Amino acid sequence: QILRPRTLAPPPLVYATALFAAWWLEQAYSLAFNLGSVALPLGWGLIGLGIAGMTWALAAIWGHRTTVNPYKAASNLVTQGPFAHSRNPIYVSDWFGYLGVTALLGSFWPLLFAPLVWAIMRYGVIGHEEAHLLAKFGEEYRHYCTRVKRWL
Q1: pLDDT at 30
Q2: DSSP type of residue 37
Q3: Cα distance between residue 112 and residue 125, in whole Å
Q4: SS3 content of the chain, % helix, strand, coil (to 5)
Q5: What is the pLDDT at residue 6?
Q6: What is the mean pLDDT of the chain?
Q7: pLDDT in tens, 9-59
C-alpha cells in the first residue's frame, strides 16, 4: 500500500515557476500580444474563477476532514462538491488562474510553457496522487474514476 503520494513537485510552485519564467523571458525576448480592453476583465475574471473554484474545493476537502497537502495521505475520499465534476478541481482552478495571469501579462510565453506545466502536473503530481488513492480506497476510488473525469 502506498502510505502517501510520492508527489515530485509542489503544485503551486509548478504554475508559479512557469509564470515567473514567462514574465522574465517577456522582459528580455518579448512575445507580446494585445487583448486591448478585454485583457483586464478577462484576466481578473479568470483569476477570480480560479479562486472561487479553489475555495469550493478546499471547503469540500476540509469538510471531509482530509488533507489538501499533496505530500500527505488522504484520510477520506472526497467525491462531493467540485469533486463530483472533476477529480482535480484544485488543479483546474490553478489553470484558470494561470490563464488569467497570461491574459494580464499579454505574453505568449506562458502558453509555450503550458504543455510542460501540464506534463509535470499530470505525471509528477496527479499520477502519484491517483496511485495513492487507488491503493488506499481501492474499488471505491476505481468506481469514482469511471464516473468523474480527471480534469473536466
Answers
A1: 97
A2: G
A3: 20
A4: 70, 0, 30
A5: 82
A6: 95
A7: 899 999 999 999 999 999 999 999 999 999 999 999 999 999 999 999 999
How many other C-beta atoms lie within 10 A of the C-beta of residue 21? 15
| Closest to 19 (Cα-Cα) out of 93, 88, 99 | 99
Q: Any alpha helices (H) in 29-148, and if so which ranges?
A: 39-63, 89-105, 109-119, 127-137, 139-147
Give the three-class secondary structure for 1. coil
In terms of Cα–Cα distance, which of 139, 143, 134, 4 is closest to 67? 4
CA 10 to each of CA 62, 78, 91: distance values in angstroms, whole numbers, following the listed order:
19, 21, 12
- Position 49 scores a pLDDT of 98
> Model pTM greater than 0.70?
yes
What is the per-residue burial (b if ≥16 Cβ within 10 Å, else e) of 69-78? ebeebbeeeb
Cell numbers for 111, please give them: 502558453
Indicate the pLDDT class of residue 1, thresholds 50, 70 and 90.
low
Beta bridge partners of 32: 107
